Amino acid sequence: MSALQIFLFGNVRVVYGQESLQVKLTRTTQALLAYLLVYRHRSHSREVLAGLLWANHTEERARSCLNTTLWRLRRTLASEDIPRSDYLIIPSALEISFNLESNHWLDIAVFEDQVSQVLARPVEAMSLMATQQLEQGLQFYIGDLLEGFYDDWALCERERLRGLYLNGLIRLMRYYQHHHDYEKSLIYGQQILQHDPLREEI
Fold first, then answer.
1. What is the fold, at CATH topology level, of the domain defined by 4-102?
2. Can you list the alpha helix ranges (DSSP code H) found in 11-87?
3. Is 176:185 a contact under the CB 8 Å cutoff?
4. For 108-113, which contacts have Cβ atoms below 8 Å and span 24 or more sequence positions?
5. What is the Cα–Cα distance from 61 to 189, expressed in whole angstroms?
6. Among 146, 149, 150, 153, which residue's Cα sits nearest to residue 48?
7. Which residues contact 126 (CB under 8 A, 6 or more apart)?
8. Cα angle at 93 between 92 and 99, to 5 degrees?
9. Is the CB of residue 88 less than 8 Å from the CB of residue 75?
């Protein structure tokens, strides 16, 4: 089991290891961690982060808020067995990124990997194993990304992952249609309409 489990679908949750100890994070600390994870494949300028997450503050105040929040995040993610620097990479005074090599599990990463792999092939080429993988991947979507966050960056990524989720449901509906299992196809069609009532092709 990963030392750190991070859930960004629905409400943000951070849980440690086998004991499932939930880590308490302030709202701003959640926002910083979430941004680093949503855009986890690149490093981020401190200046950009400060301006993005504290847009209503002066530059000096925004930098101060970022430094304080970063300190809180590093302190919170640290434990007796895990070095404070393990989860965050700070190569210089100017950049920050999340350490993708660290011992962690991230729901949006697993969701995206499993669903995208299956959607990359046509419905006619889907095996039963691929179908099960897709169904399992979609189960991680327990709610929209970062519920309660309304920043532009969060809304943009929320819509992208929501679209991926709906495409996964559509693929399952068509898979079961293709194999003449109309009962299961109907179930997935109903789920699609629950999330997108105006979708015309369902």
1. Arc Repressor Mutant, subunit A (1.10.10)
2. 27-38, 46-53, 59-77
3. yes
4. 108/8, 108/9, 108/37, 108/38, 108/140, 108/145, 108/161, 109/40, 110/137, 110/140, 111/9, 111/137, 111/138, 111/140, 111/141, 111/161, 111/164, 111/165, 112/161, 112/164, 113/137
5. 50
6. 153
7. 118, 134, 171, 175
8. 50
9. no
pLDDT tens digits for 36-50?
999 999 999 999 999
Query: Do residues 63 and 13 lie in contact, with contact meaning Cβ atoms separated by under 8 Å?
Result: no
Amino acid identity for residue 27 in this structure: R
Reading the block at residue 74, the tokens are 């590093």
| Residue in the block written with tokens 């509906």 | 173
User: What pLDDT, on the 0 to 100 scale, is given for residue 82?
Assistant: 57
Point out the residues of the chain with pLDDT beneath 50: 84
98 three-state secondary structure: strand
Pairing mode, strands 4-7 and 104-106: parallel
C-alpha 51: how far from chain center: 22
Q: Which residues pair with 5 in a beta bridge?
A: 15, 105
pTM: 0.92
Q: pLDDT per residue over 64-78, tens digit each? A: 999 999 999 998 887
CA 118 to chain CA centroid, Å, is 18
